[in-house]
Specification:
- The chain is α+β, with helices and mostly antiparallel strands and 137 residues long.
- It is globular and about 35 Å long.
- The longest helix has 42 residues.
- A 4-stranded antiparallel beta sheet has the order 2-3-1-4.
- Helix content is 52%, strand content 35%.
- It has 2 domains: 92 residues, Alpha-Beta Plaits (2-Layer Sandwich), CATH 3.30.70.60; 42 residues.
- A hairpin with a 2-residue loop joins strand 2 and strand 3.
- The N and C termini lie far apart (74 Å).
């Protein structure tokens, strides 16, 4: 089995329940054909780079999965007839790419935490200097 990721864009006007149903249908199609879902990320509604079917926004969904290569051509055809999916791309990836994505997320999380700590330290320093100025007066 090979490792793949699919990024697809769902109609922007779908409420949460309807969006979940679309994602579940895609996951079901993968698992019913012998695939295994590894990860699902709903990235939210984002502005499109260009209009697709007169839409400026879309709900982005990213799924990592394992499957046999024979299934992918059938899966692409099935995705094309799904009217609620505005665009889609399927890419074969290596396991190390998936691991690198996890590491990047961890690095980004650590960066955010370190930025928060820096801000807190700066605030403490400012508070201390303000107290020193009051004492000096």
């Amino acid at each position: 089995m090979k490792l793949y990721e699919i990024l697809f864009i769902v109609h922007p006007n779908y409420e949460e329940a309807r969006l979940t149903k679309v994602v579940d249908n895609v996951k079901e199609k993968i698992t019913n054909n012998g695939g295994t879902i590894i990860d699902v990320s709903e990235m939210g509604k984002k502005k499109l780079a260009y209009k697709i079917e007169n839409h400026r926004y879309g709900n982005y969904i990213l799924i990592h999965f394992e499957s046999e290569p024979q299934f992918i051509s059938e899966f692409k055809k099935w995705l094309k007839i799904q009217t609620q999916i505005l665009a889609r791309i399927i890419v074969r990836i290596e396991k190390k790419d998936l691991e690198n994505d996890d590491k990047k997320e961890n690095v980004e999380e650590k960066k955010v935490v370190s930025e928060k700590v820096e801000v807190e330290i700066e605030e403490d320093i400012q508070d201390e200097s303000a107290e020193e100025n009051e004492v000096a007066k």
